[in-house]
């Protein structure tokens, strides 16, 4: 209880600059945790949806039936379903035009790549904020510490005999800024590394799916288109 009171007292008595830095770091930490909880939920949902769709896709069902089922879900559908829908829709459209085999497959692949890029833009949203907080918070906290120590020593300039009791509060309030910088940075760095790895693994799965689906579509091109 005493420690908590002392910490709050030191913060309350800190200089305006140090208080602003602590407020900035606190806001960054709160925002980071909000992003962490939301991103964890989004990525878990994306992984589960990819597992479910791949299981259904490779169960040997008819592509047209899967497409109708996916399209019936409207705009609110997981990423891999969106990629499949975009590719199969473009494939069907170009095939009806009796386009060349290469043109049909390239069009379907391009549509899937565009859809994939949009999906990963969504999955990577706010990851850059976590990276920024993780890389800059320690330096912001260090700046607050340096400023606080400078202020403490400047205050001692008007004192004839300085003691530890006079110096300790100023240095303590300055070091709080460093601690706050680490508190904000460490979870952001850990979360960024973990989420980046999950996004990269998902992207690899999507790339593999696009390649394999393109091979399947190639077998569905009418013989006359290959002529």
Please report the number of helical segments: 8
Between the first and last Cα atoms, what is the distance in angstroms? 83 Å
Name the overall outline: rod-shaped
Q: Biggest sheet, open or closed, and with what strands and sense? A: none
Beta-sheet strand percentage? under 5%
How many DSSP-defined strands? 0
Residue-averaged pLDDT, rounded? 83
Q: List SSEs in N-to-C order.
A: HHHHHHHH
Q: Spans of 5+ residues with little confidence (pLDDT < 50)?
A: 1-5
State Rg: 28 Å
Helix content: over 70%
Backbone structural class: mainly alpha
Write a brief caption for the model.
By secondary structure, the chain is mainly alpha-helical. The protein contains eight helices and no strands.
List the helices and strands and how they pair.
Elements: H1 2-13, H2 16-57, H3 63-71, H4 79-96, H5 101-123, H6 127-156, H7 164-219, H8 223-226
């Amino acid at each position: 209880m005493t420690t908590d009171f002392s910490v709050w007292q030191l913060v309350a008595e800190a200089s305006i600059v140090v208080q602003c830095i602590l407020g900035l770091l606190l806001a960054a930490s709160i925002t980071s945790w909000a992003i962490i909880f939301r991103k964890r939920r989004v990525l878990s949902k994306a992984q589960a949806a990819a597992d479910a769709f791949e299981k259904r896709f490779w169960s040997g069902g008819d592509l047209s039936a899967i497409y109708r089922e996916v399209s019936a879900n409207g705009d609110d559908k997981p990423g891999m379903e969106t990629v499949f829908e975009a590719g199969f829709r473009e494939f069907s459209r170009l095939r009806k035009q009796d386009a060349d085999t290469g043109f049909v497959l390239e069009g379907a692949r391009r549509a899937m790549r565009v859809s994939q890029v949009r999906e990963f833009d969504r999955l990577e949203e706010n990851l850059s904020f976590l990276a920024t907080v993780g890389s800059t918070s320690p330096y912001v906290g260090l700046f607050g510490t340096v400023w606080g120590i400078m202020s403490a020593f400047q205050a001692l300039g008007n004192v004839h005999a300085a003691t530890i009791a006079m110096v300790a509060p100023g240095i303590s309030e300055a070091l709080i800024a460093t601690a706050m910088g680490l508190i904000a940075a460490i979870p952001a760095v850990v979360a960024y590394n973990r989420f980046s790895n999950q996004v990269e693994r998902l992207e690899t799965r999507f790339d593999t799916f696009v390649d394999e689906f393109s091979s399947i579509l190639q077998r569905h091109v009418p013989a006359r288109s290959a002529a």
